[in-house]
Amino acid sequence: MADRFGTHHLEYGDGVVVKRYTSWDRGEPHREWAALTLLAEHAPGLAPAPVEAALDANPPVIVMSRLPGRVLRGVHATDEQIRALATVFNQLRHAIPTRVVEAAAPAPWGPATAVDKVRAWADKRPDLGENPLVRQAFRTGAAWLATAAPDRLTANPLPPVFGLADGNHANVLWDDHERRVRLVDWEDSGRSDRAFELGEISEHISRLDGALDAERLLAHIDLAPGEVERVRDFRRLIALVWFLQLGPDGPATPRNPAGTLERQAARVLHLFG
């Protein structure tokens, strides 16, 4: 399944992980250290604990606690694991004071960026091949992007949350001993929109590598009035983000097995159905 290109190397020690960045032009080390520090204060145990950092070294280095568990990418998530993940999303909403979240830097990947990017890709009419299902998915998505619905997603009527801004299921660790979920890889994190975060975890392309039932996850989230529709539309948006990258010349194509575009087209049509 598609994933970001590697931005770091990990070394595992006695109870710690040493993360050495191979690229940091977007401020990843500073962002991750700020996130780990904030979470250690307000939601301890949800993420690795910060130990030490050399943020201005070449390369930058962060040392953090080593968490037990296995990733939920590539597996069939059980209802217990899905409930535990929902608990984390609820914790991120309630454990960190709004004033603290509002003072945090915004995540670089968020609603406005996603809307602008997916519209730009759609306007270029990328080569998605001749499959009728794929072509139908493009027409359906492009028609929705031409409406005002995506624009409404860029203004959050609810308090912001602190989030990963990355729905890769490889960032979700399941601890068999404590029967809980923790989150790793906070280098793209920041102030975010919870509906966007839920759209990311529901529709990231890593969902095709294993099974994490988004409907069951959302059923365990304490969604606010009006948030249901926003989550639905963010799921559509994120699904289109991946769909438009999967054509024959798309940036996500080389790292995905044959048939991924068709499967994603079916997902897009399902979400708009």
UniProtKB/TrEMBL annotation:
<feature type="domain" description="Aminoglycoside phosphotransferase">
    <location>
        <begin position="16"/>
        <end position="219"/>
    </location>
</feature>
<protein>
    <submittedName>
        <fullName>Phosphotransferase family protein</fullName>
    </submittedName>
</protein>
<dbReference type="InterPro" id="IPR051678">
    <property type="entry name" value="AGP_Transferase"/>
</dbReference>
<dbReference type="InterPro" id="IPR002575">
    <property type="entry name" value="Aminoglycoside_PTrfase"/>
</dbReference>
<dbReference type="InterPro" id="IPR011009">
    <property type="entry name" value="Kinase-like_dom_sf"/>
</dbReference>
<dbReference type="Pfam" id="PF01636">
    <property type="entry name" value="APH"/>
</dbReference>
